C-alpha cells in the first residue's frame, strides 16, 4: 500500500461510520444496532478470508479437506456457521439465531442476550465453492419488544417486520449490501485496509431489465404462468428484444446482478417442489426486503413476498423478484391463471 498516496482516503465512508451516522438520526438509540452490525461485518471478513483461501485448502489445511497432517478440516459452510454464531452471540445484542445450517433456532443464554433476532444463511451457493464461483452470506434482523421474553414467534414474522437485511458476496470483490429500511447501500471490502467502504450509495434497481435468471433445467415441471413468462422473456409478444439468460446458481450472486443491472430472478414452484426451493426467513425475506428498498418488487406467486407469514423456521416459498415492471408482468400472469 502506498501510504502517502492513500492518506487522503481516511475520510472515506466506512460501514462503521455509515451505521453510526444512521444511529445519530435516532437520539434515543443506545448503539446496540451499531454493535450488532460490527459483529456481522467481522463475520463477513472472516468468511471472506476463508473463501479466498478455499482453493488452497488441500495444501494449507483449510475447510473441507484433510490437511497435510492428515487432520480433517471443517467444511466451509460449517465453518461459516460457527463464525457467525460466535460473532453474533459475542455481540451481546442477539436473543434468537436462526441459521440454515441448524435445524433448531438457537436461544442465546441470558447473560449474553440482547434484543435482536438474526436469521441467516451463513454460506449461500455452497455448490459453487469448489469451482471458485461467487458465494455469499445472507442475513435478516428482527427486533423483539422491550421487556418481553423472546419466543419463536419473534422470528415467525412477515419479512416486512425486519428492521434490516443484507448480504455479503464473496466474489471478484467482497461486497456487503445493506438496508436498514431507508434505501440500499453497497460497501466494497478494501483488502489492504480491511474496511468495507461505501462504493454503491443509494442503489436503485432499473425499472425494467434485460436479463432473466432461472434454473431452466426445471422447466418441464413449471406451472403455466412461469412457463409463459419465461417464454415471453425469449420471444417477447410486443416485438421488443429478447431478454438474456444469466444463472449462477448462487442466490447472492444472481440477486446482486439483478439489483445492479435490473431484470428478474425466479425460483418458482414446480411439480416436484410445490413450495419452490428457497427458504423464506434467510433467503426470500432479506432479498425481497432489499429489492423493495431499491424500488423493485418481490412476489411469491400468490402475494407480496414480505407479507408472507412463515409457520416454521425453515419454510420454503417460490419467489420472483427484481425490476418493478418485470415482476409486475409475472404478477399479472399469476392473477389471470
Ligand atoms: O441448483 P438450483 O436448484 O438452481 O438452486 C440454486 C439455489 O440454491 C441455493 O444454492 C441454495 O443455497 P445454499 O447453498 O445456501 O443451500 C441458492 O443459492 C440458489 O439460488
Ligand atoms: Mg442459500
Ligand atoms: Mg447455505
TrEMBL record:
Segments forming domain Fructose-1-6-bisphosphatase class 1 C-terminal: 205-334
Keyword hit for Magnesium: yes
Gene Ontology biological-process entries: fructose 1,6-bisphosphate metabolic process; fructose 6-phosphate metabolic process; fructose metabolic process; gluconeogenesis; photosynthesis; sucrose biosynthetic process
GO molecular function: fructose 1,6-bisphosphate 1-phosphatase activity; metal ion binding
Keyword Hydrolase attached: yes
Residue span, Fructose-1-6-bisphosphatase class I N-terminal domain: 13-201
InterPro entries: FBPase_C_dom, FBPase_class-1, FBPase_N, FBPtase, Fructose_bisphosphatase_AS
Chemical reaction(s) catalysed: beta-D-fructose 1,6-bisphosphate + H2O = beta-D-fructose 6-phosphate + phosphate
Family designation: Belongs to the FBPase class 1 family.
Name of this chain's protein: Fructose-1,6-bisphosphatase, cytosolic
Organism, scientific name: Genlisea aurea
